């Protein structure tokens, strides 16, 4: 306490001089790295102002005139034809992914933990981690090939006496395919963090639970799951905080005009309207809505979790 | 990793008979089901890749007329690979991607490492500022369109640097590296400083050698990231000669555009031509995934040890 008081009483200029003398090299490197963050992260954040301007490429970001009224593009979006469809699709795909895709790695980790043979466990891990490292383009290429009208899945359906299904032209199938293949891609890799949390559960607790009369299933319920719960909550907060920004790559690889009804989400809409049609201001406004929604969701979920469970990101 | 719940064999000797030692019938049935489930999971994970592999070296006409699953190549032909060899843009794509995987990885690693070093100096006055600037970008960003406009304004459109610079520093990797640097005992760096080593020497001779496992793990993840990346190219590269491999793959697999293929009459929709197109698709997938499969065993080594996860928690 006392040393802190003394250092606080030292004049600011003196402290800065000492700090500089000690850390000057760190600061030079630090400001070099900072220039990356400023140019490629913070300048784009500043560039968001074009959501409130009539952006003209010739005039640049700062030369373009303010939109009249300033919320013109937001108005256009919220009252536009596509708003509800986009919001519904984005939320629904993410909620389905949360409902099925989020628990899947936890269940896998719990099941892996129950395997008696560690060699077998390692083999399963090696195999199931693999799809995570295969590029989204290749995975989506394989999905499109397998689910195409003459693809291997339809071949099997026909061989079993069924009717051919146009998976990629029928909007009903997009969500199940998206979520299902998402689990296929991520279940193994996603289980790593839970397996490492499982490794940290105190082994004595298992003995104690056994003495108290728990069977194998009871031990999972009363010891294992509470043991990994903090990790689960952190992952859940992060997942919900990313709610609306996930899936861009996979969606623009998989969707096509015939299934926009269920497949078009906010980020793919931003890409189409901004990059392909050149409506920069409008697309930026839509993107800003998305980021703000996400940001508020993250703060909200984090606050909620801190209240309910004492686990939070900050 | 924690071992599975121990059997009672070693307990017998001590005369202790806890009931959890004797696997009940239910427990045994569960074990059998679990093993079978894992087997199924592995088959489902691997089969799509095996199918592509078998198809890629099948006889094109046999493949075209075949219906259903493949359990081995149909006949044998390297025609698909021959087409890949003659497909110019695959090779230019490979070169661009190799550039990214080497130069890009080097730049990202050095920049991330330097910034991690800066963030590891906890008692410097600007520590809090640097940390905030970096961490904030993990939760909020400018979005696609403003970032594109900045990259455009910097004159990076159609430059290979547009594939590296916008994502030069990954805050996620910086935090992992920072945690590793901070895990190095203070005594080691302090004694070196007492011996007259300056900061650069401490960083190069002491810190970096001590965190080599983390650096190696992160480099591999960066390489795989560059290998699989394509969205930056989608936004910033128009020149078809500068497209990285994944964009060429997207053209072939997703857009079904193989007009650049030499020797396949693009307009000719005969059965044989369709068959060669299929073969070309499968062969390209194999050629692009092969390098990932080759580094996969090395990657595997790191995440089973929990290097990445352990560091993240700290």
Q: How far apart lie the N and C ends of chain B?
A: 18 Å
Largest interface: A-B, 103 and 90 residues
CATH topology of the largest domain in chain B: MetI-like fold
Mean pLDDT, all residues of chain B: 83
Report the sheet-strand fraction of chain A: under 5%
Portion of residues in helices of chain A?
Answer: over 70%
CATH architecture of the largest domain in chain B: Orthogonal Bundle
What does the radius of gyration of chain A come to? Answer: 26 Å
CATH superfamily of the largest domain in chain A: MetI-like
Q: Would you give the CATH topology of the largest domain in chain A?
A: MetI-like fold
Q: How many E strands of chain A? A: 2
Strand content of chain B: under 5%
Question: Which H/E pattern describes the elements of chain B?
Answer: HHHHHHHHHHHHHHH
Report the span from N to C terminus of chain A.
25 Å
Estimated radius of gyration of chain B: 26 Å
Tell me about the largest β-sheet of chain A: 2 strands, antiparallel
Low-confidence stretches of chain A: none
Number of domains of chain A: 2
Task: Walk me through this protein's architecture.
The complex is a heterodimer of chains A (314) and B (314). Chain A is mainly alpha-helical and 314 residues long. Chain A has two domains: 2-64, no CATH class; 72-309, MetI-like fold. Chain A contains 16 helices and two strands. In chain A, helix 5 (83-101) crosses helix 10 and helix 8 (136-147) runs parallel beside helix 13. Chain A is globular, with a radius of gyration of 26 Å. The model of chain A has no long low-confidence stretch (mean pLDDT 89). Chain B folds into two domains: 25-77, no CATH class; 87-257, MetI-like fold, CATH 1.10.3720.10. Helix content of chain B is 68%, strand content 0%. Chain B is built from 15 helices and no strands. Chain B has helices at 9-14, 25-56, 60-65, 79-86, 88-120, 127-139, 144-153, 171-182, 186-194, 199-210, 212-228, 231-236, 245-254, 271-304, 307-313. The two termini of chain B are 18 Å apart. Classes of the chains: A mainly alpha (314), B mainly alpha (314). At the A-B interface, helix 2, helix 6, helix 7, helix 8 and helix 9 of A face helix 2, helix 5, helix 6, helix 7 and helix 11 of B.
